[in-house]
Design goal:
With 273 residues, this protein is of the alpha/beta class. Helices cover 36% and strands 22% of the residues. The protein has 2 domains: 151 residues, Rossmann fold (3-Layer(aba) Sandwich), CATH 3.40.50; 107 residues, Hypothetical Protein, Haloacid Dehalogenase-like Hydrolase, Chain: A, domain 2. An 8-stranded mixed beta sheet has the order 5-4-3-2-1-12-13-14, with helices on both faces. It has a 6-stranded mixed beta sheet with strand order 8-7-6-9-11-10. Helix 2 runs parallel beside helix 12 and helix 4 runs antiparallel to helix 7. The radius of gyration is 18 Å and the shape is globular.
């Protein structure tokens, strides 16, 4: 139903961005037009602020982000968090240790920084992450002692990603880390996201809806992957990309085109124009 919805929540990778990590110009223009009409458009992403920096121009009209898988809700205009939930420091150290035991690529996300070991960035093909290598080389801070970094920046350490060399290695990490009682999600090919307990994109959307006095029923959410399931279940109109997993498609009310055929633009035309 057109004109019923007040907020559009967009995943980034696999949704707004195409398979080459490009932000379609037509989508950026449509988003600007929506924001000029008073429709809130927000990114709801596993990325942190550092990893969104390549898209400053395309996101320039957007006021808010549900970032780091819901652990950070950020006000771009005021340049400050609305909500922030950090990992417990002891849990962070155990996650880092688990990643090191599996020779995984350990990736720390704070409010403003994305942190990895330099050697891992140089060898991202070993973790099925080569599509991101150029970005990581540009935006990541490097540290060879991630545990020391975590101790120093623990108050802002929101999520840790572990990118493995195999799905079997990921399964071993998950088994080791489950007793921590955190939120865990699979991502990419071999990735394991570890966030504070109760943190999902849906949590971030609830916080932002409260801040904006918008009901979840007035939200259109678009996604493609397992870490989008909770926010899609919360939104009044959940939409799956054509390239989404079957799990995502099953819970959505509409399936749009895939991310290489501008499925997000179709959603904007269908529900907001």
């Amino acid at each position: 139903m057109k004109n019923r919805y007040k907020l559009l929540a967009l995943d980034m990778d696999g949704t707004t961005l195409d398979s080459k990590k490009r932000f379609p110009k037509e989508t950026a223009a449509a988003i600007r037009e929506l924001t000029e009409r008073g429709i809130h458009v927000v990114v709801a992403t596993g990325r942190g602020l550092a990893e969104l920096s390549d898209y400053r121009e395309e996101l320039s009209g957007i006021s808010y982000a549900i970032a780091i898988s819901g652990g950070l809700v950020y006000d771009f205009k005021k340049d400050q968090p609305i909500f922030l939930q950090a990992l417990p420091i002891e849990a962070s150290l155990e996650i880092i240790a688990a990643g090191e035991a599996e020779r995984a690529m350990v990736h720390l996300l704070t409010v403003r920084e994305s942190v990895c070991r330099a050697q891992d960035i140089q060898n991202m093909n070993e973790f099925d992450m080569e599509i991101y290598q150029d970005m990581y080389e540009r935006v990541c801070r490097t540290s060879e002692d991630l545990a020391a970094y975590a101790r120093e920046h623990g108050a802002e350490l929101v999520k840790i990603n572990l990118y493995h060399r195999s799905v079997e290695s990921r399964a071993r990490s998950l088994e080791r880390l489950r007793p921590l009682n955190l939120t865990d999600m699979f991502s990419e090919v071999t990735g394991l996201e570890m966030s504070p307990k109760g943190i999902t994109k849906a949590k971030g959307l609830k916080v932002l809806c409260g801040h904006l006095d918008i009901a979840p029923e007035e939200v259109v959410a678009v996604g493609d992957a397992p870490n989008d399931v909770d926010i899609l279940k919360l939104a009044g109109m959940p939409v799956a990309m054509g390239n989404a997993t079957e799990e995502v498609k099953e819970i959505c009310r509409y399936v749009t085109k895939d991310n290489d055929h501008n499925g997000v633009l179709e959603v904007i035309h269908r529900y907001f124009q």
